[in-house]
C-alpha cells in the first residue's frame, strides 16, 4: 500500500485538500493518507472552523507553526516536514496552492528524494513582487506531478520547460468543494442571520500586502469602500492581517465611520459561500474568490493589477481593475445598472477534479512504481 502525505497550511488549502482526501480515501485499497496541518493560519475562524464547515477529518499531525516573516515561516515548516519525512517512509507528498507551507514541504521532500504532486500548478500572474508568485515558480520547477486547473496553466508550464508527461489538466478542486457545500446550504437562513437581502449588498475582502500593508494602499481601499457604501450595503469580513494594519496605521475609526458597512470577523466557509452566492457584486483581491464568483455567476471586481487566473476574465465574470477609484466606481455602476457578462463555467470546473487526480495517482503509483525513478533532479 502506498503512503501519501498531504500538506495544508491556510484556509484555501483546506478547501482544496478536502475533495482530494475524499477521493483518495474512497480508493483505500491502494493507498493510505496522512494529513498534516502546518499551522500557518492560526485564526480560529480561518482554520479550525473549516474542519466543521467542510466535514474535513482532523489532521493526524499539527505542526503548530505560525507567525514570523516569510523566510522564518518557510524555514520552520521546512525543518519540521524534513524531520517528519525522516521519521517515517512516504511514497508521495501532495501539496496544494501557493503559500509558504506549500513551498517548504516541497523543498523538504525533494531534497530527501521523495516525489511531490502539486495541485493547482501552472498559475502565473507575472508579478514577482507577490510572495505567492515566487512560491508557484519554485514549486512547479521541482515537483514530480503537476495538476492544473486550466489549459492556460499547462501552456505556462510548457513555456518554462516542464515535460508534458508531468502535466495533468484535471480541473479545479476548490470548485469541487464549493459545489458540494452549495447543495447543502440554507442560504435564506444565512441572509437572515446577517440581516441582508439577496442581491442588495456587496461583499468586499482585502488582505494582499499591496492593498493593506501601507498607508497609501489602505487609504485607496478606504476610498473605494466609501464610494461603494454610497451605492449599496457592504459586507466586509476583516482578515486578521488587515485588521492589524488598520489599527497600526490608526485608520480603523475611519473605516468604522463608513455608512452602510457591516464589519464582520472572518466568516466560516459556509456562511461566506452563502453570502457570496446571493451578493450583487464582489470586490476582492483574492485569487480563490475570482474562481468561485466565476462559477456562481456573480460579478467580481478584482482590486489588483493582475491575476494568476486569467480564465476567470476570458470565460468568467471577473474584471481586473486595480485600486483606481474612478475605474472601480465605473465598473461598479455598470454592474448595478444590470450589465451582464456572457460568462461560462470553465472546462472541468464540474465538481469532479479530485476524482480525476485520484485516478491518475492510482495509475502512476502502481505496484511496480518506485518513487526514486520520478524525483526531480536538483
Question: What is the structure about, briefly put?
Answer:
With 378 residues, the chain is α/β, with parallel strands linked by helices. It is built from 17 helices and 13 strands. Helix 4 (100-111) packs parallel to helix 5 (131-142) and helix 10 packs parallel to helix 16 (325-336).
Main traits of this protein?
378 residues, alpha/beta, seven-stranded parallel β-sheet, six-stranded parallel β-sheet
List the helices and strands and how they pair.
Blueprint: E1 2-8, H1 11-25, E2 31-37, H2 48-54, E3 61-62, H3 70-87, E4 92-96, H4 100-111, E5 116-121, H5 131-142, E6 145-148, H6 151-159, E7 167-169, H7 173-184, H8 187-193, E8 201-204, H9 209-212, H10 215-229, E9 233-237, H11 240-248, H12 252-256, E10 261-264, H13 269-277, E11 281-284, H14 287-296, E12 300-302, H15 311-314, E13 318-320, H16 325-336, H17 353-364
Parallel strand pairs: 1-2, 1-4, 2-3, 4-5, 5-6, 6-7, 8-9, 8-11, 9-10, 11-12, 12-13
Amino acid at each position: 500500500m502506498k503512503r501519501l502525505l498531504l500538506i495544508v497550511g491556510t484556509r484555501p488549502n483546506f478547501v482544496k485538500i478536502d475533495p482530494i482526501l475524499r477521493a483518495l480515501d474512497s480508493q483505500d485499497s491502494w493507498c493510505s493518507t496522512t494529513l498534516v496541518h502546518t499551522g500557518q493560519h492560526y485564526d480560529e475562524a480561518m482554520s479550525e472552523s473549516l474542519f466543521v464547515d467542510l466535514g474535513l477529518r482532523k489532521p493526524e499531525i499539527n505542526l503548530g507553526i505560525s507567525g514570523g516573516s516569510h523566510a522564518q515561516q518557510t524555514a520552520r515548516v521546512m525543518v519540521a516536514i524534513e524531520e517528519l519525512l525522516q521519521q517515517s517512509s512516504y511514497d508521495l507528498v501532495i501539496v496544494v496552492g501557493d503559500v509558504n507551507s506549500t513551498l517548504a514541504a516541497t523543498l523538504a521532500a525533494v531534497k530527501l528524494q521523495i516525489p511531490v504532486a502539486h495541485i493547482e500548478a501552472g498559475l502565473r500572474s507575472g508579478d514577482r513582487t507577490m510572495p505567492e508568485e515566487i512560491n508557484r515558480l519554485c514549486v512547479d520547477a521541482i515537483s514530480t506531478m503537476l495538476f492544473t486547473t486550466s489549459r492556460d496553466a499547462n501552456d505556462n508550464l510548457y513555456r518554462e520547460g516542464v515535460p508534458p508527461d508531468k502535466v495533468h489538466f484535471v480541473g479545479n478542486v476548490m470548485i469541487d468543494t464549493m459545489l458540494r457545500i452549495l447543495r447543502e446550504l440554507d442560504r435564506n437562513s444565512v441572509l437572515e442571520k446577517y440581516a441582508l437581502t439577496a442581491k442588495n449588498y456587496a461583499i468586499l475582502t482585502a488582505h494582499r500586502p499591496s492593498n493593506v500593508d501601507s498607508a497609501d494602499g489602505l487609504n485607496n481601499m478606504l476610498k473605494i469602500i466609501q464610494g461603494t457604501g454610497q451605492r449599496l450595503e457592504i459586507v466586509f469580513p476583516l482578515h486578521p492581517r488587515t485588521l492589524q494594519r488598520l489599527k497600526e496605521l490608526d485608520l480603523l475609526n475611519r473605516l468604522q465611520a463608513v455608512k452602510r458597512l457591516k464589519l464582520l470577523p472572518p466568516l466560516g466557509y459556509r456562511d461566506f459561500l452563502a453570502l457570496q452566492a446571493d451578493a450583487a457584486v464582489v470586490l476582492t483581491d483574492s485569487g480563490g474568490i475570482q474562481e468561485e464568483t466565476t462559477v456562481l455567476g456573480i460579478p467580481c471586481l478584482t482590486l489588483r493589477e493582475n491575476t494568476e487566473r486569467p480564465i476567470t476574465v476570458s470565460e468568467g465574470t471577473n474584471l481586473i481593475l486595480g485600486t483606481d477609484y474612478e475605474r472601480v466606481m465605473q465598473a461598479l455602476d455598470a454592474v448595478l445598472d444590470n450589465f451582464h457578462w456572457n460568462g461560462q463555467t470553465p472546462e472541468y470546473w464540474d465538481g469532479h477534479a479530485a476524482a480525476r487526480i485520484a485516478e491518475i495517482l492510482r495509475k502512476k503509483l502502481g505496484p511496480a512504481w518506485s518513487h526514486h525513478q520520478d524525483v526531480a533532479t536538483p
